[in-house]
Predict the structure.
Amino acid sequence: MVEAEPTRGEEPIKKRNVIVVGGGIAGISTAIFLLDDGHSVTLFETGQPDKGTSSGNAGVISVASCVPTATPRTIANVPSMLLNPHGPLMIRWRYLPKLMPWLTRLVLNAAPSRVQRNARRKAELLAHASKNYDQLLSITGLGGLTHQPGLLTVFETERGWQQSQWILNLLKDIGRDVEILNSNEIGQVEHGLKPIFQHAFLTPDSGHILDPGKLMIGLHEAFLARGGVRISERVLGITRSNPKSVTVNSSNGEYTAERLVVTAGAWSKKLLATIGIKVPLEAERGYHVMLPKPEPGLSHPINVFEESMFLSPMNSGLRLTSGVELASTDAPPDFTRVRRMIPRALRAVKGLHPDERQIWMGCRPSMPDSVPRLGNISGHENIFVGFGGGHVGMTLGPTIGRINSDLISGRKIDLNLDTYKL
Ligand SMILES: Cc1cc2nc3c(=O)[nH]c(=O)nc-3n(C[C@H](O)[C@H](O)[C@H](O)COP(=O)(O)OP(=O)(O)OC[C@H]3O[C@@H](n4cnc5c(N)ncnc54)[C@H](O)[C@@H]3O)c2cc1C
């Protein structure tokens, strides 16, 4: 049987050769969707698929997480967060001068009208996340690595619960399913938690990846098996761009293609600077500790709201993720703070042992408005970007990939892309 050619409506797709820089979830999804549309794809990536930010995250396909980082509450809480040794925010003070432009924009984005606008822009993309994940997993046959238990957000105090009411209102406002649970109901839906939580809400349409590292390895293998070419070289810059082609250079030479997609996560800023494009992108670094599987175990990923801590049950154990550290991407990790969270996890989870099996740091690529950037760049029509997923970058990777691939294939996009473009 001859397979049908991919099309855009009635017309066949014009086949392009495309360079994708960066093989995290945004880049590898783009690369696979492009191959599926019949394009030739060369992926530049120096790291191992199961070591980067897209492998060490909490694995929540967090389709309801539209609340941006910058809100009046976050900004008001910054001093107390910085003073608290268990707090969720750290800043490497030496990096502060470089961080100032991003921080200034972050504060401006905390104005209530901007919070609403940014939440809606994020929510519009998140609304497509499950469909695009399903498509990526069905193309690659990796569906067994995900399931849909929902995300359970739990509150120990009445104060924390009251403070989160505006988030619930926002979620309802944008039409997300939310189930409210009291302390008895929490015990019924999640047997693995200790009975210390008074309130919770469940977003049942959130999914979960049981082993993000294995998923990333599987996606890279699927890319190669489908004829994709991977070059393990670091791209140093974009050297030429004209309406017909674009050239990048690496330590090994120059490479030219008809289209370029920059999906280099937190490092995208450096690449775009080589063509004079300034992007207010920073790394919100984050940490995880892997602990052994508890008994009886958790059946949902848990957001422990007041601790800013996620507890994510994975195939290989319980992953505790915590914290935002504002620092340069290449500053050495400091695991002190995430280790301090282990006793907090022991308080919350039944049958958990504190043996540290693995410890890790990664870089969330974050824009000050928490809204990803995608599509082609005005003035550089053949250069596409896909970064800025921030706290929901794992959720949005396949959506970033689907949209960029559709644009390169000439399909119509059912979204106002202007708000996401550079
Ligand atoms: C602790 C923690 C928990 C998280 N939990 C969740 C979660 O539960 N749900 C969720 O949705 N998101 C979560 N995230 C966020 C999510 O992991 C990231 O937003 C997402 O992985 C970013 O994907 P990316 O493809 O944009 O970037 P990356 O995964 O960082 O990929 C970029 C790639 O580009 C490569 N690269 C960079 N520069 C170059 C170059 N010059 N040449 C060649 N290659 C280059 C890098 O090696 C890297 O592999 C979490 C993040 C952290 C840190």
